[in-house]
Amino acid sequence: MNFEVKNLHLSMASFFLFENIILFACVVEARSGFAVVENSLWKAVPIFFRDLDELLLNVGGKRLPLHASPIRFASWMGGDRDV
Q: Where are the domains of the chain?
C-alpha cells in the first residue's frame, strides 16, 4: 500500500473514531439531561406550583390560573455543538 492510500485510510479511520466519540458524548449528555428532569424537576416543579397556588390564594384570594406559565425551561444540551 502506498503512502497516500495509507494516509487516506488513517484519515478515514480517525474521522470514524472521532464521530463515534462525539456520538457517545451526545448520548451521555442527553442521558444526564434526562436524569436532571427525572430526578429533580419532575418532583420539584409540581411542588412549586402547588406552593405558589396556595400562596396566591392566601395572599390575593385567587388561585394560579391553569394556563399560567410562571416559569419556563430551556435546554442547554448540545448547545456547544451547534454549528
A: 3-81
Check: CB of residue 52 under 8 Å from CB of residue 70. yes
Query: C-alpha grid cell for residue 57?
Result: 390564594
What pLDDT digit, counting tens, does each position of 42-81 carry? 888 899 999 999 999 999 999 999 999 888 877 666 666 5
Cell matching residue 44:
420539584
Q: Name the phi and psi angles at 14, rounded to 5.
A: -65, -35
Q: List CB contacts of 49: < 8 A, sequence separation 6 or more.
A: 64, 70
19 is written with which cell numbers?
Answer: 464521530
> What's the chain look like in SS3?
CCHHHHHHHHHHHHHHHHHHHHHHHHHHHHHHHHHHHHHHHHHHHHHHHHHHHHHHHHHHCCCCCCCCCCCCCCCCCCHHHCC
Q: Choose among 79, 75, 40, 48: nearest CA to 64.
A: 48
